[in-house]
Design brief:
The protein is flat and about 95 Å long. The longest helix is centred in the middle third of the chain and has 50 residues, at 233-282. The chain is an alpha+beta fold. A hairpin with a 3-residue loop joins strand 7 (102-107) and strand 8. It has three domains: 30-228, Immunoglobulin-like (Sandwich); 232-282; 307-429, no CATH class. Helix content is 32%, strand content 32%. An eight-stranded mixed beta sheet has the order 5-4-9-2-1-12-15-14, with no helix packed on it. Strands 3-8-7-6 form a four-stranded mixed beta sheet, with no helix packed on it.
Length: 430
């Protein structure tokens, strides 16, 4: 009873830590490794938008969706879509057939949806969108204003390495001002000499937008038909100053709340750990010395005659696990039946990763269902990698083909365990 209470207390402590430290997220079918946008403002108040979005697909895909929100007065035209993959750029055609390397456009009152058809097995691919949107800039009596959500909130995954460049149609714009509204930390650089604004952030959370607001002289967009007679500049400046103060206050309050929450969590964990430790100490059995004949028994340094998986099953009285699989691979490597090779993978988000490649040397081991399934399903029949085995785990059809051989392998070792159990004592009591 006390041991169960101890396990319950430790499990609750770990659950509290994981519950408050990080959210539980399902792995998406892709990641966005890079999101680059160039907004070229025109003298008529329109904008030519070029977006380069680099996907990293975790599994095979047939295409992607892209959305562009519009206001009541805006229209989108001059659309072009391309895909860059393996160093080659393919221009896609606008067709309703749904064939590979085509795209479809659906326009609603305030939303344009692009359905892009491009088959990808897995790995990186960059989708390039280019189009023109009118009425992006409003010319007021005392200033011109751009207030636009350049990245919308319909992305279900986080966007990494975001870079937005806004270029005005003129240089040397001394009265250029810029503000950025988003939910993450980043930087906004204003280059008045080049007439350019650069917005960067390491990561934009899923389902969150990035909005940019610019003020500059109306003469920069002198051909803009969207003109209003009211003054606007001072109102925008006061509004942005107020929002900046509110944002700073919210960040301070969020930091204080986080510190208080962490203090409370660790206080609870400390109390629970102390209670669990008391139960653990109270549950310790009284130590007695072994009989003299037991202490004088010689220790054998000889390796067990059984495979590692069988030895583990005997020691733990349970089915073999992934540790037994690793030991079995080492046994095969020692017998020159396979060769193990460590490989370095490409860097992801600044961190390098290593992979293990298993090469087949002796085809005789393929008579064992486990090895035959691993080399055939997770590899090419002659070798497989741990990264390839991981990808098989997220592909339902391939993963199911491994379940049978692995279960049979575990049952095989379990039967060998039962045949040896009459000869071996229960070591978990020693």
């Amino acid at each position: 009873m006390k041991r169960n209470l101890l396990q319950l207390g430790i499990g609750f402590c770990l659950g509290v830590i994981f519950l408050f430290s990080s959210p539980v997220l399902a792995d998406p079918a892709y990641n966005i490794d890079r999101y680059q946008v160039k907004v070229a403002l025109q003298s008529d108040g329109s904008a030519i938008l070029t977006q380069k979005i680099k996907y990293d697909f975790l599994d095979e895909a047939h295409g992607v969706y892209y959305h562009q929100a519009l206001n009541d007065q805006q229209k989108l035209n001059d659309i072009s879509v391309a895909v860059k993959q393996n160093g080659q750029t393919t221009q896609l055609a606008a067709k309703s057939s749904g064939a590979n390397d085509t795209y479809q456009t659906t326009m609603r009152s305030k939303l344009v949806r692009l359905k892009v058809f491009h088959a990808v097995d897995s790995g990186p691919a960059t989708f390039i969108y280019r189009y023109r949107i009118n009425h992006v800039v409003t010319n007021w009596r005392d200033t011109a204003e751009m207030n636009w959500k350049i990245i919308g909130s319909k992305w279900d995954v986080a966007l990494h390495h975001v870079r937005i460049v806004i270029v005005l149609p003129q240089k040397n714009v001394r009265q250029l001002q810029a503000w950025t509204h988003n939910q993450t930390n980043g930087s906004t650089q204003v280059d008045r000499r080049q007439g350019k604004v650069v917005i960067t952030t390491a990561q934009n959370p899923a389902n969150s937008f990035i909005e940019s607001r610019l003020l500059f002289p109306s003469k920069v967009t002198a051909d803009n038909p969207l003109v209003k007679k009211q003054k606007r500049k001072q109102q925008v400046q006061q509004q942005e100053a107020k929002w900046a103060q509110e944002a700073n206050l919210q960040r301070k309050q969020a930091r204080r709340a986080k510190q208080l929450r962490l203090s409370l969590i660790w206080g609870i964990v400390a109390v629970l750990f102390a209670v669990s430790l008391l139960f653990f100490v109270a549950d310790q059995p009284v130590k007695v010395k072994w009989p003299r004949h037991g202490q004088s028994l010689p220790h054998s340094f000889a390796l067990p005659s059984q495979p590692a998986a069988v030895v583990q099953a005997i020691l733990t009285n349970a089915r073999p696990d992934t540790k037994a699989l690793g030991a079995a691979l080492l046994e095969l490597a020692a017998k020159k039946q396979i060769h193990l090779l460590t490989k370095k993978q490409k860097k992801r988000f600044g961190h390098s990763q290593t992979d293990l490649q298993v090469d087949l040397l002796d085809p005789a081991i393929l008579n064992v269902p486990i090895w035959q399934a691993l080399f055939a399903v997770a590899g090419n029949g002659k070798s497989f990698t741990f990264s390839g085995l991981k990808k098989v785990g997220i592909q339902i059809k391939k993963a199911k083909s491994l379940i049978g051989p692995l279960s049979n392998g575990k049952n095989k070792y379990s039967s060998r365990l039962n045949s040896n159990i009459i000869l071996m004592p229960k070591l978990n009591r020693l």
